[in-house]
Amino acid sequence: MEDKIEVLQKLVENSRSIVFFGGAGVSTESGIPDFRSIDGLYSQQWAYPPEIILSRSFFLQHPDEFFRFYREKLFVSGVHPNRAHEVLARLEHEGKVSAVITQNIDGLHQQAGSEKVIELHGSIHRNYCMECGAFYTVDYITRCDGVPYCRCGGMVKPDVVLYEESLDTSLLEQSARLLRDADLLIIGGTSLSVYPAAGLIRYYNGRDMVLINKTPTGFDGQARLLLNGSIGDVLGQI
Ligand code: ZN
Q: What does the buried/exposed string (b/e) look like for 18-29 if buried means 16 or more CB atoms within 10 Å of the residue's CB?
């Protein structure tokens, strides 16, 4: 492992525009459960599976139940960025990392100080009235009971991409551009099985790809460097 960390350090040293592509594993190390993983919420008791509750049609038909689940399962109080978030923010300020592309919706990268963050699945920190577009903070959503409504009477929807909803095309285009221009791609905390991860990283033309994940992924064979371990532990050493 030590040798591999040295290789990673060298790769980072020799790069000028690193793109970090991160998945749920980056957040789970901050104590946020991954509802797609086996040990996560799927195995917990709930009337419907998460992918149904977190779908657009369910949200529109049963907003009460949606928000009950959303508040209980998607918010974890007192979470803080971990070493992975902190190192990525530092590397951005040192001019090494050009962007973080994340599938997480918790805003922890920004909290750690990263500025160029592409949130493919949106963010719990942005909420908008479906009628007039007024903005609401995450506190507004967590503090009120039941369905959050706007002053105008419209329902407030978190700016997170639900099942049945499509991803923001401009974010996908931006991600593709950043990946095309990157000279090092570090992928962490994702098995790359969730759309659109696998498709997006094909835009990367650079020489070396680094994969940091606790479990094997379908891309292990393409990685210049494969680190099977905790993303916080690995990045924390560079
Ligand atoms: Zn409104």
A: bbbbbbbbbbbb
Please indicate whether residue 109 is annotated as part of the active site: no
Q: For residue 196, is the peptide bond before it cis, meaning its omega torsion is within 30 degrees of 0?
A: yes
Tokens describing residue 141: 């959503």
* pLDDT tens-place string over residues 44-94: 667 888 889 999 999 999 999 999 989 988 888 889 999 999 999 999 999
| C-alpha–C-alpha distance, residues 10 and 44, integer Å | 43
Q: 135 CA to middle of ligand 1, Å? A: 9
Give 132 Cα–ligand 1 centroid separation in angstroms.
4
Q: What is the pLDDT of residue 33?
A: 80
67 with 84: CB under 8 angstroms? no
Catalytic residue among 62, 93, 109, 121: 121
Residue 148 CA, ligand 1 centroid: distance in Å: 11
Distance of alpha carbon 97 from alpha carbon 111, whole angstroms: 16
